[in-house]
Amino acid sequence: MPDIKGTALRGGLAKLVGQGGTFALRLGFMAAVARLLEPEDFGLVAMVTVVTAVLELFATAGLSAASVQRSTINDKQISTLFWINVFVGLMLSVTCLLLAPVVTAFYGEPRLFWVTAAMGAGFFFNAAGAQHLALMQRQLRYTALAAIEFLAQLVSLSLGVFMAAAGYGYWSLVAAAIATPAMLTVSLWVVTLWIPGPPRRNAGILSLVHFGGTVTIGGVISYMAYNFDKFILGRVWGASAVGQYSVASQLVNTPTANINMAIGGVLFAVLSRLQDDADRFKSYFLKAYSLIISMTLPITIFAGVFAEDIIPVVLGPRWIEAATVFRLLVPAVLVFGLINPLGWLMWSSARHVRCLKISLVIAALVLTACVAGLAYGPIGVATGFSTAMVLWLIPHVVWSLHGTNIKPLDLFEAASRPLLSAGVAAVLAYAAQYAVGPLASPFLRLAVEGSVMMLVYPCMLLFVMGQKELYLDLLKSLGIRSSTTPKATVPGSVTYSS
């Protein structure tokens, strides 16, 4: 694949545009349902999601990631992995149903029984589309994938808003959550046109299952660590407290998560193809890392500085108490922006066992910090969570890069330019808000602050920090159209190589 750079950039751009559209949809959905529903409705669904989302991590069993990471894979292997995914998905749906009375008894909330039972349907839908998704990722068909994901979000979130307006309360959130994987899987089947064959005992999938199992266990541990805050808040402080906390957490996390998903997914597929070429591996990773953090850092810093204006504009005045939690979680989200791309690096270079060990350490730190802050409610938990992640930043970077030809200084050099540029832009945006006066509406203040941020930051990054050549090179590469760019073929009984 000689034009892997151009293909990767076009795929990354398509995913980024798609994730931008998805973010706009989710932001609009959140703004709409926040005005139609009560914090308690969000809290009820958040209580269940903390539990069911752990099970959801098993729906693909890490086998889609294993399919992407392998240099070569054949139809017999992919078909066998598909049936394993389906079996696991069905078992998880049944498990979710069996857990419904346990969740209800734990929280002392009878309404959670049918919510938990209904959320189990999503496991089967995710499992049924896992290998179709992996095939599209291997082929770097990210333009089509972005369109599919956007369509799935549009349909499911529209359904949620309609049901909320019709008075279905928390069931509107449940319906949106189930409709997303259902629509996504149906679309993947239609676009890939791949029909799985029968499972085979001698398919040679043990190494794939080991990789997928390790990734899944690490994902479960990470999820439990990053969601323990909501779990313990719901148990001790109730639905209203966890509703305020979970919505603030979702709002501040969504931009960074969407960007990392957009570029990180492409980065994983590309780095997996380059895992035997150390120099190109390093070059591609550092450029992608610079691109990711140049987008995540300014958004997160802006969110922290102007939380009091963002919350009433997006969620409405009833949610103003969430602004403090929103701001306290910003340091943790900044750390996520810096360390999340390292996960793609370790997975693509078959360092998945190291990822698992790192997840265990993070879990211990976060759980300890959240328990320490629990007595102070959502504010204490948010403070503890962010403190733990900030303290973990440097050890995480050093451990993740150990044994590679990428040094911690390479990452800190890449991060320093967007960090300084965003800091300067935020200071000027903060000063600019006084031009409109404290009596102006939050919407007007936010518009002025955002305009200054969007004007100053790129100027600082491109011209003062000298990043213009990097982005000109990226734009140039986007225009390359090689005849050797991989075409979207229907998989058959052939070997899918890099």
Give structural notes.
The relative contact order is 0.13. The longest helix has 35 residues, at 239-273. The chain has 20 helices and 2 strands. The radius of gyration is 22 Å and the shape is globular. The chain has 498 residues and is mainly alpha-helical. The chain has one domain (4-196, 207-482). Residues 480-498 have low confidence and may be disordered. The chain has a two-stranded antiparallel ribbon with strand order 1-2.
Question: How would you summarize what this structure contains?
Answer:
This protein is mainly α.
Q: What is the succession of H and E elements?
A: HHHEHHHHHHHHHHHHHHHHHE
Q: Structural class per helix/strand content?
A: mainly alpha
With strands numbered from the N-terminus, the spatial order across the biggest sheet is 1-2
Major sheet size, sense and barrel closure: 2 strands, antiparallel
Into which percent range does the helicity of residues fall? over 70%
Our measurement of the CA-to-CA distance between the termini, rounded to an integer number of angstroms, reads 7 Å
Q: How confident is the prediction overall: mean pLDDT?
A: 83
| Unreliable sequence segments | 480-498
SS summary, helix count: 20
Strand coverage percent:
under 5%
Number of strands: 2
Indicate the radius of gyration in whole angstroms: 22 Å
